[in-house]
Design brief:
By secondary structure, this protein is an alpha+beta fold. It folds into two domains: 64 residues, lambda repressor-like DNA-binding domains (434 Repressor (Amino-terminal Domain), Orthogonal Bundle), CATH 1.10.260; 60 residues, Cyanate Lyase, Chain: A, domain 2. It contains six helices and two strands, in the order ααααααββ. It has a two-stranded antiparallel sheet. A hairpin with a 6-residue loop joins strand 1 and strand 2. Helix 2 packs across helix 3. The longest helix has 25 residues. The termini are far apart.
Length: 146
């Protein structure tokens, strides 16, 4: 996956300033995962959000234009090679159809929106090894009959 130049600039500034995405959440007033999506050009910011982000990172305000543009989303039609990202791909290979079946049992024929959607990442302390807790919440959209 090729990382856009703007993403590299933003991530470098974040690292240089010693900021976390949680720090940027406080500065921008948006969720840390959403901010990361903007930085990776998978979401677009408003002028105000872009300005706050660039101010927190002490970057040129002229980058705001790039952050407010509608991005091309997705990784492309490839199997991801990054081990962490691949695990999500693997999870969907193994649990995709079971999740689909359970969702249809509970909601009927439709999909979970990726537009009206939130994603949170939490750390769960565990004596056997800390755990990653991912919470996805998307609006259910029934397929239209006509």
């Amino acid at each position: 996956m090729a990382i856009p130049e703007i993403t590299q600039i933003l991530l470098s500034a974040k690292k240089e300033k010693g900021l976390s995405f949680a720090d940027l959440e406080k500065a921008v007033g948006r969720d840390e995962v959403w901010i990361a999506a903007v930085m990776y050009r998978q979401a677009s910011a408003s002028e105000e959000e872009a300005s706050k982000l660039l101010f927190a990172l002490e970057l040129d305000p002229n980058y705001a234009t790039e952050l407010t543009e509608c991005p091309v989303k997705g990784l492309g039609p490839i199997v991801p090679t990054d081990p962490l990202i691949y695990r999500f791909y693997e999870i969907m290979q193994v649990y995709g159809m079971p999740l689909k079946s359970v969702i249809h049992d509970k909601f009927g024929d439709g999909i979970m929106s990726a537009i009206d959607f939130t994603l949170d990442v939490e750390k769960e302390e565990d004596p056997k090894g800390d755990r990653v807790k991912i919470i996805m919440s998307g609006k259910f959209l029934s397929y239209k009959k006509w």
